[in-house]
Every structure is written in structure tokens, then in C-alpha cells.
Amino acid sequence: MAARGNRATAWRTSAVAVLPGRGGDKATAGLLYSSGGGGKVKLLVAVSHGVAGDFRRASPDKVHGCDLHEGEYGHAGSIISWSYTHDGKHKIAKQLIQTINEEKKLIEFKTLEGDLMEEYKDFLVTLHVETKNNIDLVTWTMEYETLNEKVDHPISLLAFLVDLTKDIETHHAGN
Known about the structure:
By secondary structure, the chain is an alpha+beta fold. The protein contains three helices and nine strands; from the N terminus they run βββααββββββα. It is about 20% helix and about 55% strand. Helix 2 packs across helix 3 (about 155-175). The chain has helices at about 40-50, 50-60, 155-175, and strands at about 1-5, 5-20, 25-35, 65-70, 80-85, 90-100, 105-115, 120-130, 135-145.
């Protein structure tokens, strides 16, 4: 349990799985979050709009920037580039915001270029939030196809996204 101001947030990782997927593999992590019904609106807005300053303030050890290359932040079809540190190394990921469905609280990012593409042929990241009885289930799913059998499943990247989610929500709970 983490507390900021008068609001307390409770996180619990509920599941981590690696499964065979369409044309590749799929790794998923789910987090249960009890916020008193606030939902994940701020998380979805921050992620879909690539609010780099917000990410830098919430998680300065992880995210260093998010640049817009094409389109508009928060719109499907836009291309953004993330600068981040993962496993102690500075990395870049250029992604297409493939889908934003506000009604379903879902965002999909297709990786086009960057460090991930040195090991993976395809890499799709999906953020989905379901809310029931003031409890949010935040799910990160990665669908990927490795370039060869020696490439590990991206479990540490999944842990990175889980930790980033916690950092962002803890930051927003204090604001």
C-alpha cells in the first residue's frame, strides 16, 4: 500500500503469463487497483497522449521522453518515439498508436523501430483497463514474434510496464 496525501492506493499483481499467440507468443500481466472508483482515466490519457513531462515526473528513472513524429498525440495512426531506460540501458522505441478505444479503455502500440526490433520481428503492446465495483484491472499484453529461438521472452519489459503503471498512478494520486 502506498499513500500520498489523503488518498491511499493499493496495487496487487494478479497474473503474469506467457502463452502461444497468433503467429508468435503473448505475455500478459494484470494488476488489480483499488482507487475508490477513480478509474484509470488519467493513466489512459497520459499514455495515449505521450505526456513526456508527466512520465518524467512520475518515473524519472524509466521514461526520458516521448516525441511525436507524425499525427497528433492521443490519436490512432500517430507515430511516437519513446526514450527510456530498461535493464540499466538507454533504449528507444518508435511506435504507431494503432488503436485507441476510449469506450473499451484500450490502447494498442505497434513497434516500428528501435531496440526491440533487434530481437523481435513483430511487437505489439496493448494496455487495457476494466473497472468493476471500484476495482480496476489494468492489463498489459505484449504480442511478439522473435527473430530466432535464442531470444528470451520479454518478461523484464513486462515488469517494467507494471512498475511504470504503478509509478504513474502513485504520481497522479498525489496530484
